[in-house]
Amino acid sequence: MFDYTNQNVVVVGGTSGINLQVAVSFANAGANVAVASRNIEKVNAAVALLKQANPNGNHLGVSFDVRDEHALAQGFTIIAKSFGHINVLVSGAAGNFPASAAKLSNNGFKSVIDIDLIGSFQVLKQAYSLLKRPNASIIQISAPQAYIAMPLQAHVCAAKAGVDMLTRTLAIEWGIEGVRINSIVPGPIADTEGFNRLAPNDALQQKVASSVPLQRNGQKQDIANAALFLASDMASYITGVVLPVDGGWSLGGASIAMTELGSMAVKQGL
Ligand code: COA
Ligand code: NAP
């Protein structure tokens, strides 16, 4: 449906879960794709999948921690040498664990802020000089915690709220160059690290599914499809948007389910 042939796509945090599906879907649509994350084995495995998806594409993997400004700059230098410019950036590296604010160490809080919020800012800044042209598109992968308070998620709520405000602010600052930036907010997505950490068994995941108006948890492909659309010319007048892709969960069910999940974990002593 979408043709990204000869387009250069970078997916930061693109080596597992939702973001890997996004990366593979861009490759399936003809793009050259670069993925980046900390773990070199995950990076290499992801590149192998990209090559299977699109054997004609120019794919590469780089290893860096988004918290490490120097490593990030080196990684983007490698990407720049291979791609010259970037058409689409997906920024989705994140960390999450349930922990009560009272027990969470300052460094625990800071580690999530450093990865999700400051890491995203550093990624956007590194990519900007390669993206700065009309029709370039940035997609940030946010989370419902950005606007729905959840017990045991103070660190993630604070970080992802900041991510979405970066989206809105940079839509204004960078719109002048023709660069669009939007956030996708995935609902509960089956078979992912993020969902497994917050709803760690089938019974809880089924309970969450029943709180979604469309009565199912999402698939990774649901998020990839939204990314393919948002980065395309079909979305050329859409910028600064925070788009839930969640089966209607954020209309009400998410507040109830996220409070319940958090409260249950609190009772277990987290
Ligand atoms: N509960 C409370 N605190 C925790 C914690 C938990 N489950 N896990 C880590 N922390 C704290 C650590 O104790 C440490 O604080 P301290 O120095 O005061 O003890 C701090 O967080 C950093 O932990 P560390 O293990 O050194 O961080 P890291 O940089 O190696 O890993 C994480 C970052 C903690 C976010 C890790 O979970 C991660 O790499 N996550 C990526 C995968 C993921 O979360 N996927 C879901 C995507 S949303
Ligand atoms: P995941 O599989 O753990 O994906 C996280 C990715 O980020 C991995 O590729 C990981 O690879 C990378 N990463 C983590 N920390 C990094 C760091 N410091 N530097 C560089 N890369 C780093 O988790 P997921 O559940 O699919 O989540 C993907 C995104 O969707 C996240 O932004 C998350 O907040 C969002 N989200 C998920 C859900 C859900 O239901 N799963 C719901 C809402 C939002 P390395 O370990 O190799 O670094």
From TrEMBL:
One of its GO terms (biological process) is fatty acid catabolic process. It comes from the Bacteria. GO terms for molecular function: 2,4-dienoyl-CoA reductase (NADPH) activity. SUPFAM superfamilies: NAD(P)-binding Rossmann-fold domains. Keywords: NADP, Oxidoreductase. Belongs to the short-chain dehydrogenases/reductases (SDR) family. NCBIfam families: PRK07576.1 (NF005752). This is SDR family oxidoreductase.
